[in-house]
C-alpha cells in the first residue's frame, strides 16, 4: 500500500512519514532527504538543487520527478511506500499519477497534515535534524532523549540552513501557491485524509492510524 504525506514545510509530515514507515514496514521516500544527500555528496544534481533550496524555492520539477521515478522503480517499493515532500506541484502530481500507472501501483491515501502558518513559523525555529541519518526533532514538540544528540545514531543535531526566518516565510509562500492546490486535487479523487497537525506527534500518528482503520 502506498501513501503520500502532504503539508506545509514544518507541518511534521517527515516525522509522521517515519512513524508510518516503521508501522507498516515500507520505505520512506523523502525528496528533501534525497536532495540533501546529493548536496552532501556534491553531485551535479546536488549543486543544482542547493541553489533553489537555500532560497526557499522548489527544485525544478523535471529534476525531482526523475529522481522519484528512479526510486519507485526499485524493488523495495513493491510492497508499498510513503512519499514525503513529493508531489509538491500539479506538474509533479500528474507525473506521479502516470508513473504509478506504469508501475501498477495504487495510492491508498494522501495524508494532509494541517497546521496554520502562525504555528509553522514558531515551529521551524525549533527544528533540529540529524545530519547523519536524517531523523528530525523539535526542541519542544519532539525532543531527542539526550539534548542535541540523535536518538538513533548519536550524531550531534544541527539546524537546517533553509530553516531561517526569511527562508521559512518564502517557503510558506511557495507552499500556498504551488502545493496547496494538491489538496483539492486529491480530495476530488476521494483519497484525501486530513489530520490536525497541531497535536503532539504521537497523537497525530494515532489519529492517522485510526483514520486509516489500522491499529497503532
Ligand atoms: P520541508 O517540507 O520542511 O520544506 P523538505 O525536506 O521536504 O522540507 O524539503 C526541503 C527543500 O527541498 C524544499 O524547500 C525544496 O526546495 C526542495 N524539495 C523537496 N522536495 C521537493 C519537490 N518535490 N519538488 C521541488 N523541490 C523539492
Ligand atoms: Zn541520526
Q: Brief overview, please?
A:
The chain is of the alpha/beta class. The chain contains nine helices and seven strands.
Structure explained in plain terms:
The chain has a domain at 2-115 and 179-211: Rossmann fold (3-Layer(aba) Sandwich), CATH 3.40.50. It has nine helices and seven strands. It has helices spanning 13-24, 31-40, 44-53, 61-72, 90-103, 117-125, 165-179, 181-188, 201-212, and strands at residues 2-7, 28-30, 81-84, 107-114, 127-129, 136-138, 192-196. It has a five-stranded parallel beta sheet, with helices on both faces. A two-stranded antiparallel ribbon has the order 5-6. Helix 4 (61-72) runs parallel beside helix 5 (90-103). The longest helix has 15 residues, at 165-179. The model has no long low-confidence stretch (mean pLDDT 93). The structure holds adenosine-5'-diphosphate and zinc ion. Residues 9-10, 31-32, 35, 52-53, 57-59, 64, 85-86, 88, 92, 162, 171 line the site of adenosine-5'-diphosphate.
> For the residues shown, what is the average pLDDT?
93
CATH superfamily of the domain at 2-115 and 179-211: P-loop containing nucleotide triphosphate hydrolases
How many separate helices?
9
The largest pleated sheet is described as: 5 strands, parallel
Radius of gyration over alpha carbons? 16 Å
Spatial strand arrangement across the major sheet: 2-3-1-4-7
CATH architecture of the domain at 2-115 and 179-211: 3-Layer(aba) Sandwich
Unique bound compounds: adenosine-5'-diphosphate, zinc ion
Broad CATH class of the domain at 2-115 and 179-211: Alpha Beta
- List unreliable stretches of 5+ residues: none
